[in-house]
Amino acid sequence: MEIVNADLHNHFRTRTGEPFNVRYMDRILQSISKNIGRGSLIGLVNMVGREGDDRNFERFSQAISRSGIGVVKRRSGVIYVPNYDIAFVKGFEVATNIGHVLSMGVPDDLKLESSLTWQEIYRRVRDVGGANVIPHPYHFLEGVIKKLIDLGRKEEIGEMLRTSDAWEALNGEAKLFFNPNGDAIEAHKRLKREDYSLGCIGVSDGHSYSEAGVVYTRLGMPKAVSELIDNGSMGPAICEAVRASRVEDIVCQSELVPIIGATKHAIEILIHQIAHKSRQRDLTTI
Ligand SMILES: [Zn+2]
Question: How many domains is the chain built from?
Answer without folding.
Answer: 1
